[in-house]
Amino acid sequence: MTDQDTYTIGVDFGTLSGRAVVVRTRDGAELGSAEHPYAHAVMDRNLTASPARTELPPEWALQVPGDYVEVLRTAVPRAVEAAGIDPAQVVGIATDFTACTMIPVTTDGTPLCELEQFADRPHAYVKLWKHHAAQPHADRINEIARERGEAWLPRYGGLISSEWQFAKGLQLFEEDREIYDAMDRWVEAADWIVWQLGGSYARNACTVGYKGIHQDGAHPDEDFLTALNPDFGGFVRDKLDAPIAQLGDAVGHLTAEAAAWTGLPEGIAVAAGNVDAHVTLPAANAVGNGQMTLIMGTSTCHVVTSDQLHEVPGMCGVVDGGVIAGTYGYEAGQSGVGDIFGWFVSTGVPAEYTAEAERRGISTHAYLTELAERQPIGGHGLVALDWHNGNRSVLVDTELSGVILGQTLATRPEDIYRALLESTAFGTRTIIEAFTSSGVPITELVVAGGLLKNAFLMQMYADVTGLPLSTITSTQGPAVGSAIHAAVAAGVYPDVRAAAAAMGHRVVGAYQPNAAATAAYDRLFAEYTRLHDYFGRGENDVMKRLKTIRREAWEASNAVEAEAAPALTVPEDLS
């Protein structure tokens, strides 16, 4: 470090916590980091932030925006302290977020859940990316778009997700009109946090393109919105429309209030918001055509750039400038990866396995991986579908659910664990084949995220896909990617490509595919594909029927409980 060095701060807002990292602009060196968990985590059963603790229906996932501000107050100063730098040498800050994560706010950016009259209303809170309760609304968007031949629909693989801005907005409109009418803006959390930092509101080109159905300079028109609901025609004009900032732009400058939160100099550049997955590509210096970056954590997002525009069935979207200016950025994804492994470890592993892992001082995941690694490919006799949290690509259907086929009384936990690992690799291969068959060749996998630590899983992905697999050098890829964008916003580099070349790093070809293993996995992948198409393409809709039965059962149960509840009596002195 020298007195002439400058630094930027990247803040990655994940599903359960926010992470801040201090990065040196001349070479991308990470000098300090800190993480702060959200106090309310994810509210998917009860509205724990309100005194009433209202029970939430299935498929809901809410958060508290104040938890995001606490990350700025806590993690940023701690990261700067850990870096041992002079805060005066910080020239910019940038953030990234899970998406699509939406907040209803007033005209000055106040979240409606922070208003006393709406504190007990679930629709007043943040709808996290994995809020899937808007699936019926997404279905209607898709149906009407197909009927009308909307030109933008193929840009999203032919299907709009329940996770996105319009589906969640339509759900809000139809289920709580008072909240909808009270909100002045329907804001991506990625843009809201930038608003809090820099004092200016603009939508970033990434989320507006991928999650906001913005193509060729426009959103779906008012005629389409009216076809969804006669009173919904003003949604874009009244609730969504705002200036669009390009990635790497300075949207504002750190306000005095935000400077007090963070301990950073007032007036430094605040970059446009971004999505955690997309911002990771520069951190790995993987911004070239054919380099598919997998950000692997609770879910996986697959992002690749190309000079050409193609329509890929089941992709989440293709956006001009959505990742790097001047190229088309393509996105696909898997709704559950690490979440599936975590679900099995927390619900399906016998106590003796957990005890043995503890005795050896390793995680249950590591112990199961060690046992699974000893097996020959196909030795467990199982095949699984990775749909425990629905399917994002290539089927784009949150109503699908998981399958583990082939179990016997001899099946062991490590067998199931390995089958689940394999299922996610097969899901990625399915996505890759959709791209390559559509004219977007994939030549290299680049992996970032928490699952990098599982070397067995990384080799499996190389073997299943038959592609070389490179690994990002940073354990904080999104935060470093944000710091790279902050350096561009601060004027240290002219554009993101130049900043990525200096500040982004990866180990090229860290894992190479083994031809014999690839051939063995081909047999299992063929079985995966048969199941994938059987359950996922309409031949057997049992998964959807079961979800309908589940919802109806809960609705009936709640109705019975409501009828049985004692009537509220008012004391005479209060009546």
UniProtKB/TrEMBL annotation:
Alphabetical list of Pfam families matching this protein: FGGY_C, FGGY_N
Reactions accelerated catalytically: D-ribulose + ATP = D-ribulose 5-phosphate + ADP + H(+); L-ribulose + ATP = L-ribulose 5-phosphate + ADP + H(+)
Presence of the UniProt keyword Cytoplasm in the record: no
Key words of the record: Arabinose catabolism, ATP-binding, Carbohydrate metabolism, Kinase, Nucleotide-binding, Transferase
Database matches in InterPro entries: ATPase_NBD, Carb_kinase_FGGY, FGGY_C, FGGY_N, Ribulokinase
Alphabetized GO MF terms: ATP binding; D-ribulokinase activity; ribulokinase activity
Any one biological process term the GO annotation gives: L-arabinose catabolic process to D-xylulose 5-phosphate
Domain Carbohydrate kinase FGGY C-terminal: 293-490
Annotated Carbohydrate kinase FGGY N-terminal domain residues: 7-280
GO cellular component terms, A-Z: cytoplasm
EC numbers, comma separated: 2.7.1.16
Pathway(s) per entry: Carbohydrate degradation; L-arabinose degradation via L-ribulose; D-xylulose 5-phosphate from L-arabinose (bacterial route): step 2/3
NCBIfam families: L-ribulokinase (TIGR01234), PRK04123.1 (NF003154)
HAMAP family found in the cross-reference section: Ribulokinase (MF_00520)
Record family assignment: Belongs to the ribulokinase family.
Name of this chain's protein: Ribulokinase
Source organism (scientific name): Ruania alkalisoli
